[in-house]
Design a protein that fits this description.
Elements lengths: L1 E7 L5 E8 L4 H6 L8 H7 L9 E5 L5 E8 L10 H17 L4 E5 L10 H16 L15 E7 L8 H22 L7 H15 L2 E6 L1 H5 L3 H7 L7 E7 L8 E6 L1 E5 L8 H4 L7 H16 L4 E11 L11 E3 L5 E3 L7 H15 L4 E6 L4 H6 L4 E5 L2 H14 L3 E4 L16 E2 L9 H10 L7 E5 L23 H9 L3
Parallel strand pairs: 1-6, 2-4, 2-5, 5-6, 9-11, 9-14, 10-11, 13-17, 14-18, 15-16
Antiparallel strand pairs: 3-4, 7-8, 8-11, 12-13, 15-18
Helix pairs in contact: 3-4, 4-5, 5-10, 6-10, 8-11, 10-15, 11-14, 13-15
């Protein structure tokens, strides 16, 4: 469905009337419904609806302005407030309810913002963003029109709006559209999405928004000393790319931060080849790069008072007669060397060049990289938090706060000197995998990357567990990309202090 969202002051006729209910005082809340529903209590009892978080009930109506009444639960009040995350999931339930019934119009009566201890603007932003994210469907290759998107009008009833919320809606739509663009790119199969195509998208965005773009490819990869990109790309017929987008706010003393995203458009593991079933979704290994490029698109339109560099080193990791071998030693942009003990630990090799480049060529206040780096992250955190690794407390605090604000939470993992011997090699500066006694792959992967940032405050976000197939969360879909990273990075930039 292509959602069109508008704010209204009072309930309007629609196919579906959506209403939010919490467990606490549910009866009183239902009595405040703007319509009368016969036998409401009995009908809800039949569906066992009690207002629990993520619960939903859909009732067919007769003689009303709406065909259906959709009730979605917000759960219980905890510490005096309702959960914003419960609100996100409830909004998503309404979107799914409309989708399942081929409904064309929804009127959603928003709950009071004070119930969540947020402002009305924040409430509207959360609802608009998650509604558009929940709606997105990857249907590019479906030929059955009945399975493809159709139009949906979402009217949000905001009776107490006393300020113009158009800018809030615009921002929410920009962020949601960028998230969905990221999902679209990640879901596109690798035969239709190569490093060159990713670079073409970056250049298109730069042309449309006024960002400065620089693309290194072909012989320029070798000439500039991007040994990590070269080592990964050499096994493929597809050339690697170093993609750079720059936003300048025009303020002389404004700080500059860099965002670096891993762009492996397909990962077979190289000569250290993956098992077949582990390869099936490896089109998602460029999710970090996709998030960074889409974030830069939003930044260019919202124009924060901070300079931002977006960097996406990209390659395809394939096995062939020209592929890099286990045992090879490569030299990165900053001159450091690494022994490649496993060609399936390739993302850190391209990120090493990206991190080296931005830290050498720009005066940075901070650098954040985001990557589908390690399968170990899912074992550490499951599928509800991305991994955060950094030694910089202030930067960690910013990222944790941004993640909670937008619904892309991160959990900080330890990084102390004790871990730093994990990536040593006897014949090079580094090894690209850790020794056998180290089991903490997410942390040791970050240890490798830390060697390429110098003294710049740096944080690493591992989204290997969050980039794909999180259908258990109602605003995502099973077997599809999430776009994780855009919302947290945009919020970090917009609220940089």
């Amino acid at each position: 469905m292509a959602i069109q969202i508008k704010l209204v002051q009072q309930s309007t006729p629609a196919d579906l009337l959506g209403y939010f209910v919490s467990v606490d005082g549910m009866l009183n809340q239902l009595l405040a419904l703007p319509i009368q529903v016969a036998d409401l209590a009995e009908r809800l009892a039949d569906q066992n609806f009690k207002g629990d978080a993520s619960s939903a009930a859909c009732l067919h109506l007769t003689g009303q302005d709406a065909k259906y009444l959709g009730l979605v639960g917000l759960g219980k009040v905890k510490n005096g407030i309702l959960s914003v995350e419960a609100l996100r999931r409830a909004v998503s339930k309404l979107v799914r309810m409309a989708e399942d019934r081929n409904i064309k119009s929804v009127t959603m009566i928003l709950p009071e913002a004070k119930l969540f201890e947020i402002s009305l603007a924040e409430l509207v932003e959360q609802v608009v963003t998650v509604a558009k994210i929940a709606n997105h469907k990857f249907d590019t290759y479906l030929t059955d029109s009945a399975k493809k998107e159709c139009d949906l009008l979402f009217s949000l009833v905001v009776p107490d709006a006393v300020v113009d919320l158009s800018a809030v809606v615009l921002k929410a739509e920009l962020v949601a559209d960028a998230t969905n663009q990221t999902r679209q790119w990640v879901d596109t199969p690798a035969n239709h999405f190569t490093p060159t195509i990713l670079a073409d998208h970056a250049q298109r965005i730069a042309k449309e928004t006024g960002l400065k773009s620089t693309i290194f490819g072909g012989k320029q990869i070798d000439e500039n000393g991007f040994g990590g990109i070269h080592a990964v790309a050499r096994g493929s017929v597809e050339e690697g790319r170093m993609i750079l987008l720059e936003y300048s706010c025009g303020i002389a003393d404004a700080p500059t931060i860099a965002l670096v995203g891993k762009g492996i458009t397909y990962d077979t593991g190289g000569l250290s080849i993956k098992p077949a079933n582990s390869m099936e979704t490896m089109k998602d290994d460029m999710a970090g790069a996709a998030a960074v490029i889409s974030t830069m698109q939003v930044i260019a339109k919202l124009k924060p008072k901070i300079n931002v560099i977006g960097c996406a080193p990209a390659a395809e990791n394939m096995p062939s007669g020209s592929a890099g071998r286990p045992g090879d030693i490569i030299t990165f942009y900053n001159g450091k060397t690494a022994e490649v003990k496993n060609t399936d630990a390739e993302g850190r090799l391209v990120l090493a060049d990206g991190l080296s480049y931005v830290t050498k060529n720009y005066q940075l206040a901070a650098v954040v990289d985001i990557a589908t780096l390690t399968g170990a992250c899912e074992y550490a955190l499951g599928t509800f938090f991305a991994g955060l690794v950094t030694e910089h407390d202030e930067l960690a605090d910013k990222l944790v706060a941004s993640g909670l604000q937008v619904g892309e939470p991160v959990w900080r993992l330890p990084l102390t000197d004790d871990y730093k011997s994990a990536m040593k090699s006897n014949i090079a500066d580094l090894s690209n995998i850790s020794g056998g006694r180290f089991k903490c792959g997410t942390i040791t992967g970050a240890v490798f990357l830390q060697n390429f940032v110098g003294d710049v405050p740096w944080a690493h976000i591992d989204i290997a567990n969050m980039a794909y197939d999180l259908g258990m969360l109602p605003y995502y879909r099973a077997d599809s990309a999430t776009g994780f990273g855009v919302r947290i990075l945009v919020d970090l930039v917009l609220n940089w202090r």
